[in-house]
Amino acid sequence: MWLNIETGGFEYSRLLQLFRKNLSFFPSLVHCLLNHQDTLFTEEDKQPYRHDKGESPSLMLNSARQVAKAWMESGERLNLSIDSVLSLLDKTRIQTQDNQHKIWLDYDEAKCLIMAGRNNDAREFIIPVLKKKQSESWAWGALAATYRKENTNVAITLFTQGLCHAHDEKFALPLLKGLAPLLASKSFIKEASMCIQKATNCYQENGWKIKPDLEKLLNESWFDRTVNLNELNSFLEQQSQGAIGFLYGSTRLALGLVIKLHKSGKGLNLYLSENETISVPLRLFKKQKTPALGNHVNITVSEDREEKSVIAAELTSPQYLSGVESFQGTLNVKEKGFGFVEDTFIPAFLIKDGIDNQLIEGLRFRQFDKKKERLGWCAASIIAIEENETTALEYINSQIQEINDA
Asked: Which residues pair with 374 in a beta bridge?
């Protein structure tokens, strides 16, 4: 700038590249970026760096995040305006071509807004982030921070939910330190002391120097050094109940039947009723075997009119579901690969080689046939059976008959 070199050229691009990892420590660069944000970046600077493992953030996105970091760490000292920082983040969100890393712009903006005391605005950015990162403790902690001064009970619920998702004790430290004073204010002295002691243990076990914020908590008059940490996890789980409601609003439980597995291997289609089918990500089935066609699944669905989504899912035992029933009959395979058993349509992906004209049984569901403009039956799962075997359907019918006779 001293040499009057025009912005938006190689010199500035190179300068930002050189200070890519530590730009936030150089006030002159931060002010340059904010003052010339409209002309500083070329089209190339707005493209992410794509590679075999995905992409790295574009120069503009990375630089904007560094400016946000500078404001959060020393905004007043550097005489940085939050509005100018938010303007840069907004321009970056619109102009850059990044796919994987724009979520971090929203996270940075939420943190800036929290520090500025604009909690309602912060929630508009952190909630979409949290919906994608529900298993991450830091995301729950950010939402909890927006309620810290407004509603202590809500903040406690969200902080404890975050701690239930802390994969490593190091990740739990900010939440433990944020939660402890809130618990103490609600007379949960023993539990607040547990949080402080757990954080202290983590610092000591890793050989770290205890930071001033934790030192201050250790010197609180109510802190009890003799607490036993064994009860902390059960307390956190109990207090976290209902946290999901602050993310999605009202929810409902539903039973469904797996009728299709996505080719991507990342999801499935679930039949709920004649008028409703929903997509479910496989990542929701934590520590369970992959669902198969014809399995029954319990799900929790948000009732948000604008964004209906599945929040949780788990396999369950077979049970009654309206519009679903067992069937059996001889399979008739057509030239195009699909087939029929009387009036039941059998999709091609269910049909294995060598079962044409064989006796089969399975589960079917009733759905609207767009071509025929009426309800029709479609198979969800099938298996071939030997004619001299007692089929599952026959066994069930015989049991029902015995009960009726009795």
From this structure: 369
100 with 73, same domain: the answer is yes
Residue range(s) defining the domain that contains residue 199: 10-245
Q: How far apart are CA 22 and CA 14, in angstroms?
A: 14
* Per-residue pLDDT band at 1 (split at 50, 70, 90): confident
CA–chain centroid gap for 67, Å, is 27
Angle in degrees, CA 94, 100, 101, rounded to 5: 65
- Shared domain for 306 and 365, answered yes or no, is no
DSSP 26-83: -HHHHHHHHHTTTTS--TGGGS-EEETTEEE--HHHHHHHHHHHHHHHHTTTTT--HH
Q: β-pairing, 296-302 with 251-261?
A: antiparallel
pTM over 0.90: no
Same structural domain, 371 and 388: yes
- Give the CATH number of the domain where residue 398 resides: 2.40.50.140
- Mean of pLDDT over the chain: 89
